[in-house]
Protein 1
Amino acid sequence: MAIDSLINEYFLTGAVAGLPDRHFIGGEFVESLGQQRLTSVDPGSENVLGEFSGGDHRDIEVAVASSADALKSWKRVSPAKRGEILYRTAQLMKANSAWLSFVECLDSGKTLAEAEGDVAGSIRLLEYYAGAADKLDGRSVPLAGNYMGWTIREPVGVTAHIIPWNYPTSTFIRGVAPALAAGCTAIAKPAETTPYTALLLAEMFTEAGLPDGVLNVVTGFGVDAGAPLVAHRAVNHVTFTGSVNTGVNVMQSVAPNMTRLTLELGGKSPLIALDDCDIDAAVEGARWAIFSHSGQICSAGSRLIVHESVHEALLERLVEVTNRIKIGHPLKNPDMGAINSKSHLDVISGHVRRAIERGSDILTGGGIMADPESGKGWFFAPTIIDNLAQNDPVVQQEIFGPVLAVQVVRSDEEAIEAANSTEFGLVSGVYTRDISRALNLAREIDAGQITINDYWAGGVELPFGGTRKSGFGKEKGWEGIEAYTKVKSITAKI
Ligand code: NAI
Ligand code: MG
């Protein structure tokens, strides 16, 4: 259906037909053994979209058995054939991109344009890893005397993917596509507020020819479904994206089995504006860095580290553009969408309330809002807090909302020190017209990705992942598929 008819029908009826509500295991939707029912709500209107299964350890047992069984033949399927199935899934996604974007927008609260961007990016991920499936070569290694040696790359086996609610579609595809391309099977556990696109996509993979059981999706709460999945003995690799605390839990639960692990956790990423920067470019960069998806992005530019000589001019313009940001129902494509859940809205609001109580310098925003048309929905005003000290909680803690922490510095050295003085190391943006200064900062800042004179530069081809408490391991790019392989050395005596 065309996007306009989907939207009109939703605003007319408040209902969405065709949303899946059960686990997807063994190539079909199945009833849950766990008895809980969860609810997904449209964060832009507080309208209930539907109920879905809350699985538990019994559903995980079934899913893991199905994936372990499917692995036996999937790992022997020719790499070219695996790539072909991924490529066909990408084409199905393209044909259904209006529907997927519509569902993603409603389920997550991001604007329709942002959801469309995520779906397009996920299609690119599938195409990239479709092409990578038959290029996982090993090396030939010269040895002494009458010996020859090689390395081969084998799939790691059954992989588990714990998906967060901020990027339900792209985090799912980012993990599952390289895993399947490498010959692994995969079980995904979507977040408790955003179950739909993973379920819809699992069905699309099957339609594209993926054998039953190679990809399973179990929905439910983190403690009931996520925890038994990551702790399962038959799971060989876990990819977790989410909070630091849950990341620590996951590390502890995989330890007894020595399960391989990729952790993509939080951030407090800075955008650094030096004294010689293009102020307009920095304003534009900062605006998108923190207010895209209402700041609910692990790599959001949630800190602005600005040189004192451009501080005033830059903040004046940034406040001006921020004050023009319109919120509204995400399907109507406002500048900024909703906060995913009421509980997360309360978390953001708590951070800002405490900052206000400490007497912080709030330049704009600072409170909860609603859709001006309906008076409903979970929104937070785009907020800028100026002149913060390095040890301020707003500088140190991940808020995961549209709240920008501004720190003023007097030199490149101070900017580097400020950038490195949180426990995170995910991304950093550097704005300067001097390439040597830019490259010096790029070298000195401890983060997984540095962008120069832009904040969101990158693509599916580029590895992504942090250092320190932002996690370890890389997703996307070539590193993203190598993570799902293990190297075996083979030697022969002549
Ligand atoms: P969370 O880390 O608890 O949830 C992420 C995923 O982990 C969900 O699918 C959840 O069901 C699952 N999960 C929870 N406990 C689990 C366990 N013991 N074992 C296995 N899986 C488990 O994050 P939450 O509570 O939704 O958000 C809290 C904060 O986390 C946010 O405010 C934000 O700061 C951060 N976050 C970071 C994300 C990122 O992209 N790095 C994404 C989502 C949240
Ligand atoms: Mg939802």
Note: The first strand starts at residue 23 and ends at 25.
Protein 2
Amino acid sequence: MQQFDIAVIGAGPAGYVAAIRAAQLGFSVACIDDWKTPQGKASLGGTCLNVGCIPSKALLESSENYERVLHKFAAQGIKAKGVELDLVTMLARKDKIVGELTNGVAFLFRKNKITSLHGRGSFAGPPRDGAHQLEIKDGDNKQTIAAKHVVIATGSIPRPFPGVPFDQECILDNAGALSLSAVPKRLGVIGSGVIGLEMGSVWRRLGAQVAVLEAMDTFLPVVDEQISKEALKIFTKSQSLDIRLGVKINSIKREKNVVKVLFEEAGETREMECDKLVVAIGRLPNTSGLNLQGVGVKTDTRGFIEVDDACYTGVAGIYAVGDVVRGPMLAHKGMEEGVAVAERLAGQKPHVNLDTIPWVIYTAPEIAWVGQSEQTLKAAGRAIRTGFFPFSANGRAKGLGETGGMVKMIADAKTDQILGVHVIGPFASELIAEATLAIEFGASSEDIARIVHAHPSLSEAMHEAALAVDKRTLHI
Ligand code: FAD
Ligand code: NAI
């Protein structure tokens, strides 16, 4: 039987990064993963690389370029005639990027001498001679390995609407929504969360009529209210996404090639008929078939593996990282946990600060934030000062032709320490890095105000938002 210092179950961003860091630190490492492409080929990288972050961003970029050439370039004196959508090429480009990156993980595994084992892993009962026993099943093939430490990184799966399984023809999860072979005339989306907005944006730009049904009365409740209100205005008014808040879905039925959704809105029963329906109502931790009970690893009421701040499950030698444990379901959060577990096993003292995980929603404009929102700080009775700066007054944004949105900074009223930064606008995903660094370093808004920012750049909006906290913006 093969023996390892560390076995990682799952090769998504949390697992593959844990495996690489552990190998760098001198451990012998195996990584078990069962992902297969629709063509039946093993593919590393988990949800993120195969059907999540990477393919969605490829399609978001392509669809945005399509929209730019159709509707935005003329204002810059660029007239395009005969513009055509070639969806086959667009999807092939997405698949090529996915292939390059998933093969890249396989290359990194070889480079770091990580043993990559394809198949479904599970605990084969209690440990023997101080090592955990893991069974790996791939079809009829079975093998057992032993490892002193196990890192569970089995990720998450899409949550179906109760009683309505995904058929991937008309009722789609994220994987189905990323692979439609034609632009649907009418696309319905259940859930105006991150996937609903990103996938809704892609197919709207490519020509679908998109209606989004959301259970909550508030749009993007985790986002700072000033930003989420601005976002809702842009998505509904300028981009004609039909977002309905506060609805109750009564039933979802597929009839041949249409889907009928019965729902209640403002006390009335309504029906939405669509050609394809994306159900994006959150994701569930993936622990099925791991035999956690066999080793005493506990899950909480929502099915997440219980861990402490160090991702330790409380069972000797077993850690869990990424989407399968508490905290935001984000690739970079999982990666940092993977690194931290490997370093802890090597005797180091790493720390992952869940309070400074940046979030990005890759709509156009992008929405990004780090730290706390004005509404949560006010609800906690915290005295704050806020400053904001609109991109409409930023020279670089004007040059880009992307002047919607703003940067908002929130600081403690007494100490001036930055508590939250929220951006809606062009390249918010890049701008948020400065704010993350500032919050992690305990910076004040004055620190950012005193730092020189290149001109003309979008980062000047961050600088001006910091100046605005002290009511001394220069350019509005
Ligand atoms: P996963 O990526 O889910 O990987 C888990 C792996 O373990 C999978 O390969 C799975 O097959 C395998 N596995 C599970 N059980 C077993 C088992 N028993 N044996 C063997 N293998 C097993 N996050 C961002 O930060 N930025 C984004 O832009 C972003 N975009 C997203 C877009 C979409 C459409 C979706 C769905 C998600 C997106 N996410 C994004 C979230 C991100 O994909 C996840 O947070 C991330 O993939 C979680 O990583 P993980 O390693 O914990 O799990
Ligand atoms: P989500 O949690 O972001 O949004 C789900 C939405 O569905 C919520 O607004 C919720 O109120 C709504 N909802 C739940 N039940 C409903 C019902 N019965 N009827 C109508 N609405 C209902 O989940 P989503 O979009 O599925 O994404 C899952 C996770 O994947 C995200 O939370 C995020 O962690 C990750 N992700 C991250 C991305 C990024 O970082 N850019 C992109 C896509 C996904």
Note: Residues 9-15, 32-35, 46-48, 52-53, 56, 120-121, 153-156, 174, 195, 286, 289-290, 322-324, 329-332, 334, 362 surround flavin-adenine dinucleotide (ligand 1) (CB under 6 Å).
